[in-house]
Automatic annotation (TrEMBL):
Localisation per UniProt entry: Chromosome, Centromere; Nucleus
Family, similarity comment: Belongs to the CENP-I/CTF3 family.
One family name in Pfam for this protein: CENP-I
Gene (name only): LOC106811404
Species in which this protein is naturally found: Priapulus caudatus
Protein name: Centromere protein I-like isoform X2
Amino acid sequence: MCPYICHLLHLLTRREDVRLFRIRRLLNLQSRVGVQTYISGLLSIYRLYYPNIVSLVMSGRRKIFFKNTDTAWAQVIRKVQARANAVQRPITVQVPSLAVRGTKPRHKRAKLQLVPSLQSAVDQTDVTVPTDSIQTSISITAGMKLEQIHTFEDLLTNVDRLELPMQVAALLRHPHLQHLLLCSSDRLLTTRLSYWLHHTLQEELILGNGENDAVRELLDMVVTFTDFIQEGVPVLDDIIIRYLMVWNGRDYRSHVLQLITRMGMMPFSDLRECILEPLRQIYCSSSVYVKCQVLYCLLQLLTNYSALEWVTPDPNSNTLPLPNTTSVFSPKADTQALALTTIQELIAYIDKLCVLGLTQERDHAFLMHYTLSYMELASTLGQRFGVPLQQVVSAFLIYRCVFALHAMAVSRVCGVICDYCEQYRMMAKKAGDAGKQEGWDFIVNTLNGYTLDICDTLWRSKAFSFHLNPKRSTMIYHLTSADAVARTRVANFHTAFSLLQHPALMGFTQSFLKQQPDEDRSLGHAHKHRGKLLTHLQERHLQGVDRFIHTFIRSKD
């Protein structure tokens, strides 16, 4: 009869029924008869309510503790449950049937809501705690029920009296309770929520079959919750890492990518193996729109790492600064030592993905936009978050944008070079001569090469002019050769990418010339009006070119 009794208790146990002496009796029974599924099933309910006092290791596989071998007996139990609910709660809050839990295998409940509805843990009008009951560390205190909270002012007024839900996962549906979770110092709440998320997502996401509306609704709530608390949930990191190993790149794509952006800091070797490589496989085998989604995800991850995990060190101190240790779910580990390495390695990895994507998609405009967004982020990390400048965007991306057929690309890449220049000056001013970082000579030479080549191309009309000054080592000189340029059979290739004749800017040049007098409408006379052309481009929201010329060219005319 022991399995049947445990099954019955499993169905009828409420939060207020959990007591320490009952847990001790079950553990003593388990030590005598060994690990039995029916005992583990009853202990799992106790752990669901109070994970801090029940240390039970559950198997990661789908587990059914009780089997309904007698359908008639199951029907009798449901009738008893319905009659008990009708007697205990005749008018107050509606209680979901307890028959939902354990009477059927989990995979047969796909049509039910995964996130429980909001319901108070105890109805004080119906439950009376005897004074002579055994005293334990678990107590029931009177308070205000959640159903009586309608506004944020109600929450502030009764924050000390508020009664938490019977199922803590219900706070995912209630924004006011999420405020309470942030203010609470009780780790029991976050432990219960973590246990519920791990159990539910493992069963419905990893072991589930395809997409369904219930899981999508749950993921919507989880994403909204992580955005609200401005950090990731550690248990979700483990779930996402395991799910990426079997993910087809289509199911719940937007939710998975948003959860990745909130993942905690980890060594880059682990990040590459668990997150980046599965994403790269999806990236290489998907359409351009999926590539853009993946790039945006990684850019958000890089931004969060730089904003939350990296703390700018004090130049007057020899010790590393302490990161922000305030966390909702668990105290953050000191990741300052590996933060900079992970950030720099992630920048290099995103750079390679951009190169690969532009090559595959032949400079698609959407992908070019997200590539330039990466370049703008990488060039302003020092100004925005104080991340040291240790590398610059690869030459492949710079020159692919300079010679692109999109005016947006030409303008924004000029702005990227200006941002790098400002970032270097700011970092050099802070560090001084004594604090000069290792590798800055290479960075300066690389940026000087980019700047000279763009000036030669857009302003001086001397693109690919290797013979003019063979001793000057520019970036284009290392990437191409005069023979390779000559084989393109482009006439006047030195001036083909100038400010007046660049294919991406030709339409703007023509519209500018139409506004000039008749004698100045030819390209030959337009050279003396380049300053006005820059103003015309700026009015067309192409400020990057004008900013570049103002920064690196003393005289524009």
